[in-house]
Write a structure and sequence with these properties.
Length: about 290
């Protein structure tokens, strides 16, 4: 069978099983199994050997059971990085890139405007960054790649997450990052930071059952469940963050739907200032930024 015929066949099957963006996923599966780029497949339309065709069919069986395509392929992309992912790990989301983008913007703005009060001395070499609930390490690694002289830390209570994060650092050749197993701030001792970022679990417990099958049935509940109101982690992170932030440092948090007002009030009550919100691609207030005096 020709590659493009196989892609069309997969697309039809995936659509029948309710898979969104079926053509793209069909291309990914065929491209992955043939170890050929999408453009080469469309240009040359090569024949698929029998053994490769069997591999494609096996991946298709997994996908129609609603196993995430990222788990099936074993990797995904995040902010230009190749991230290894698998069972037991939260899959990086595109909206989380907004968190990284805003952190980079803040740091570069400070760097390029000497008149502004700086949150670190000694240039980028004095910059300490922290990613709480690091998961795959995607946030920490994106920042560590952008600011090679900075020291970046990531913590997570999951041993699986720490192993994936360390592996992803090696895959991407990033050395200025340290991943530590532990709950939130607990393993950090007396370290202080210029920016603290987190994409914590924020799904309301009652809403977990309504998530897409790929999320509900496959991704780790511990990386999704934010408690009855979805706010459990914010209630810990926000009051504690001030103990770990340097003067004029920033806290950046990813938020769930309709959580912005409540989390903003938490930050105000904890003494943060210059608080603002950033909307995601769907118009949801997704990122909260707050400065520590």
């Amino acid at each position: 069978m020709k590659a493009l015929d196989k892609i069309r066949k997969l697309k039809e099957i995936l659509e029948k099983h309710g898979i969104d963006n079926a053509i793209r996923e069909a291309e990914l599966i065929v491209s992955h199994c043939m170890n050929l780029g999408r453009m080469i497949i469309y240009r040359d339309n090569p024949d698929i050997p029998k053994d490769i065709n069997s591999d494609i069919n096996e991946l298709l069986k997994r996908r129609i059971k609603r196993e995430p395509i990222q788990y099936i392929l074993g990797c995904t992309e995040f902010y230009g990085l190749k991230m290894k992912v698998g069972t037991g790990l939260l899959i990086p989301r595109p909206e989380t890139e907004l968190l990284v983008e805003e952190a980079i913007r803040i740091i570069k703005h400070k760097k390029n405007n000497p008149s502004l009060p700086h949150f670190t001395k000694g240039g980028m070499g004095g910059l300490n960054l922290l990613d709480l609930c690091t998961g795959s390490g995607c946030i920490a690694l994106a920042l560590a790649k952008e600011f090679r002289e900075a020291k970046v830390y990531g913590t997570d209570i999951s041993e699986t997450s720490i192993e994936y994060a360390q592996n992803n650092a090696e895959i991407n050749g990033i050395k200025n990052v340290t991943f530590i197993k532990g709950s939130l701030f607990e393993p950090l001792g007396r370290l202080t930071f210029d920016l603290i970022l987190s994409n914590p679990p924020y799904i309301r417990k009652d809403d977990l059952k309504n998530l897409q099958p790929e999320i509900r049935d496959w991704e780790p509940v511990g990386a999704l469940d934010g408690g009855e109101e979805g706010l459990d982690y914010y209630k810990v992170i926000i009051p504690e963050a001030g103990n770990y932030l340097k003067k004029n440092g920033y806290l950046l948090l990813e938020l769930g739907v309709n959580q912005a007002d409540t989390v903003r009030k938490m930050a105000e009550n904890a003494g943060f200032m210059n608080i603002y919100l950033i909307k995601d691609y769907a118009g949801i207030e997704r990122i909260l930024v707050a400065q520590f005096e």
